Automatic annotation (TrEMBL):
It holds the Pfam family Radial_spoke. It comes from Adineta ricciae. Residues 16-38, 127-137, 149-169 have a biased composition (Acidic residues). Residues 1-47, 116-169 are annotated as: Disordered. The lineage of its organism: Eukaryota, Metazoa, Spiralia, Gnathifera, Rotifera. One of its GO terms (cellular component) is radial spoke. The keyword Cytoplasm applies. Residues 138-148 have a biased composition (Basic and acidic residues). It is found in: Cytoplasm, Cytoskeleton, Cilium axoneme. This is Radial spokehead-like protein.
Length: 169
Protein backbone atom coordinates (compact mmCIF):
# COMPACT_ATOMS: atom_id res chain seq x y z
CA UNK A 1 0.00 0.00 0.00
CA UNK A 2 1.18 3.56 -0.52
CA UNK A 3 1.14 4.17 3.27
CA UNK A 4 4.07 1.72 3.61
CA UNK A 5 2.10 -0.78 5.84
CA UNK A 6 3.62 -3.71 4.01
CA UNK A 7 7.09 -3.64 2.54
CA UNK A 8 9.65 -6.19 1.54
CA UNK A 9 12.51 -6.90 3.95
CA UNK A 10 15.87 -7.96 2.52
CA UNK A 11 17.61 -10.25 5.04
CA UNK A 12 21.04 -9.70 3.47
CA UNK A 13 20.96 -5.94 4.32
CA UNK A 14 21.32 -6.60 8.06
CA UNK A 15 24.01 -9.18 7.40
CA UNK A 16 25.95 -6.66 5.31
CA UNK A 17 25.93 -4.07 8.12
CA UNK A 18 27.20 -6.62 10.66
CA UNK A 19 29.91 -7.98 8.40
CA UNK A 20 31.46 -4.61 7.45
CA UNK A 21 34.01 -4.93 10.21
CA UNK A 22 35.13 -8.45 9.27
CA UNK A 23 37.93 -9.71 7.01
CA UNK A 24 38.25 -9.03 3.29
CA UNK A 25 37.86 -12.75 2.52
CA UNK A 26 34.28 -12.65 3.68
CA UNK A 27 33.63 -9.62 1.46
CA UNK A 28 34.73 -11.68 -1.55
CA UNK A 29 32.37 -14.49 -0.54
CA UNK A 30 29.56 -11.98 -0.09
CA UNK A 31 30.10 -10.67 -3.62
CA UNK A 32 29.79 -14.22 -4.95
CA UNK A 33 26.36 -14.75 -3.39
CA UNK A 34 23.37 -13.71 -5.45
CA UNK A 35 21.30 -10.68 -4.65
CA UNK A 36 17.83 -11.56 -3.40
CA UNK A 37 15.11 -9.91 -5.44
CA UNK A 38 11.78 -8.97 -3.84
CA UNK A 39 8.78 -11.08 -4.75
CA UNK A 40 5.75 -9.51 -6.34
CA UNK A 41 2.43 -10.89 -5.10
CA UNK A 42 -0.99 -10.34 -6.59
CA UNK A 43 -2.48 -6.88 -6.18
CA UNK A 44 -4.70 -6.32 -3.16
CA UNK A 45 -8.48 -6.07 -3.50
CA UNK A 46 -8.86 -7.52 -6.97
CA UNK A 47 -12.41 -8.06 -8.25
CA UNK A 48 -13.94 -11.46 -7.43
CA UNK A 49 -14.93 -11.89 -11.06
CA UNK A 50 -11.25 -12.38 -11.83
CA UNK A 51 -11.01 -15.48 -9.58
CA UNK A 52 -10.74 -18.82 -11.33
CA UNK A 53 -13.75 -21.11 -11.55
CA UNK A 54 -13.73 -24.61 -10.12
CA UNK A 55 -15.05 -27.00 -12.79
CA UNK A 56 -17.78 -24.59 -13.95
CA UNK A 57 -18.60 -23.51 -10.37
CA UNK A 58 -18.10 -19.84 -9.56
CA UNK A 59 -15.34 -19.06 -7.07
CA UNK A 60 -17.64 -17.19 -4.66
CA UNK A 61 -21.24 -17.55 -3.48
CA UNK A 62 -23.03 -14.32 -2.51
CA UNK A 63 -25.88 -14.15 0.03
CA UNK A 64 -27.62 -11.62 2.24
CA UNK A 65 -27.82 -12.19 5.99
CA UNK A 66 -31.51 -11.37 6.39
CA UNK A 67 -34.28 -10.68 3.93
CA UNK A 68 -36.76 -9.76 6.69
CA UNK A 69 -35.02 -6.53 7.72
CA UNK A 70 -32.98 -5.43 4.68
CA UNK A 71 -31.88 -2.08 6.17
CA UNK A 72 -29.91 -3.93 8.89
CA UNK A 73 -28.75 -6.86 6.76
CA UNK A 74 -25.19 -7.37 5.61
CA UNK A 75 -23.97 -9.03 2.44
CA UNK A 76 -21.51 -11.88 2.69
CA UNK A 77 -19.51 -13.95 0.26
CA UNK A 78 -18.40 -17.54 0.81
CA UNK A 79 -15.38 -18.89 -1.06
CA UNK A 80 -15.95 -22.13 -2.94
CA UNK A 81 -12.21 -22.61 -3.53
CA UNK A 82 -11.16 -22.15 0.11
CA UNK A 83 -13.95 -23.55 2.33
CA UNK A 84 -14.12 -21.44 5.47
CA UNK A 85 -13.15 -18.12 3.81
CA UNK A 86 -15.83 -15.42 4.14
CA UNK A 87 -16.04 -11.73 3.30
CA UNK A 88 -18.88 -9.60 4.64
CA UNK A 89 -19.91 -6.00 4.23
CA UNK A 90 -22.49 -3.53 5.44
CA UNK A 91 -22.30 -0.22 3.69
CA UNK A 92 -18.67 0.86 3.37
CA UNK A 93 -17.45 -1.30 6.26
CA UNK A 94 -16.15 -4.73 5.25
CA UNK A 95 -14.09 -7.55 6.77
CA UNK A 96 -12.63 -10.92 5.84
CA UNK A 97 -12.42 -14.04 8.00
CA UNK A 98 -11.07 -17.53 7.46
CA UNK A 99 -12.07 -20.43 9.68
CA UNK A 100 -11.02 -23.58 7.87
CA UNK A 101 -8.51 -26.38 7.62
CA UNK A 102 -6.11 -24.73 5.17
CA UNK A 103 -6.97 -27.06 2.28
CA UNK A 104 -8.39 -26.07 -1.05
CA UNK A 105 -11.62 -27.58 -2.32
CA UNK A 106 -11.12 -30.71 -4.39
CA UNK A 107 -13.72 -32.55 -6.43
CA UNK A 108 -12.50 -36.01 -5.41
CA UNK A 109 -12.69 -37.34 -1.88
CA UNK A 110 -9.53 -38.26 -0.07
CA UNK A 111 -9.44 -41.95 0.73
CA UNK A 112 -6.19 -43.12 2.26
CA UNK A 113 -5.05 -46.67 1.69
CA UNK A 114 -6.09 -49.03 4.46
CA UNK A 115 -3.30 -50.35 6.68
CA UNK A 116 -2.34 -54.03 6.31
CA UNK A 117 -4.01 -56.61 8.53
CA UNK A 118 -2.08 -57.36 11.72
CA UNK A 119 0.09 -60.47 11.65
CA UNK A 120 -0.72 -63.45 13.84
CA UNK A 121 1.70 -63.60 16.74
CA UNK A 122 1.13 -67.28 17.51
CA UNK A 123 -1.30 -70.04 16.70
CA UNK A 124 -3.81 -71.22 19.23
CA UNK A 125 -2.61 -74.63 20.37
CA UNK A 126 -3.30 -76.91 23.33
CA UNK A 127 -0.53 -75.27 25.37
CA UNK A 128 -2.31 -71.90 25.07
CA UNK A 129 -5.94 -72.96 25.42
CA UNK A 130 -7.28 -72.67 28.93
CA UNK A 131 -8.67 -75.82 30.56
CA UNK A 132 -10.88 -76.29 33.59
CA UNK A 133 -9.18 -77.49 36.76
CA UNK A 134 -9.90 -81.18 37.52
CA UNK A 135 -12.07 -82.12 40.46
CA UNK A 136 -10.35 -83.66 43.51
CA UNK A 137 -11.96 -87.06 42.74
CA UNK A 138 -10.54 -86.95 39.20
CA UNK A 139 -7.09 -86.08 40.54
CA UNK A 140 -7.24 -89.00 42.99
CA UNK A 141 -8.25 -91.43 40.20
CA UNK A 142 -5.44 -90.18 37.93
CA UNK A 143 -2.89 -90.46 40.76
CA UNK A 144 -4.05 -94.00 41.59
CA UNK A 145 -3.80 -94.99 37.92
CA UNK A 146 -0.23 -93.63 37.75
CA UNK A 147 0.78 -95.48 40.91
CA UNK A 148 -0.76 -98.72 39.63
CA UNK A 149 1.07 -98.33 36.31
CA UNK A 150 4.35 -97.66 38.13
CA UNK A 151 3.83 -100.79 40.33
CA UNK A 152 3.11 -102.94 37.26
CA UNK A 153 6.29 -101.69 35.61
CA UNK A 154 8.33 -102.49 38.74
CA UNK A 155 6.86 -106.01 38.87
CA UNK A 156 7.71 -106.56 35.21
CA UNK A 157 11.28 -105.40 35.80
CA UNK A 158 11.62 -107.74 38.80
CA UNK A 159 10.29 -110.66 36.79
CA UNK A 160 12.74 -109.90 33.97
CA UNK A 161 15.61 -109.70 36.48
CA UNK A 162 14.51 -112.90 38.11
CA UNK A 163 14.26 -114.68 34.77
CA UNK A 164 17.64 -113.34 33.77
CA UNK A 165 19.27 -114.72 36.96
CA UNK A 166 17.93 -118.24 36.34
CA UNK A 167 19.31 -118.35 32.85
CA UNK A 168 22.82 -117.38 34.00
CA UNK A 169 23.14 -120.42 36.32
Amino acid sequence: LPQGRTKWWNPSENAEKEEEDEDEDEEEMKAETEEIEPEQGPPLLTPIGADAEIESIKAWTAKISSSLIPQYACAFLRSNLWPGAYAFSRGMAWENIYVGYGHKYVTTDYGPELPPLPANEYNDGPEIVEADDPLPEDEAKAKAAEEQKAEEEEEEEEEEEGNGDDEDD
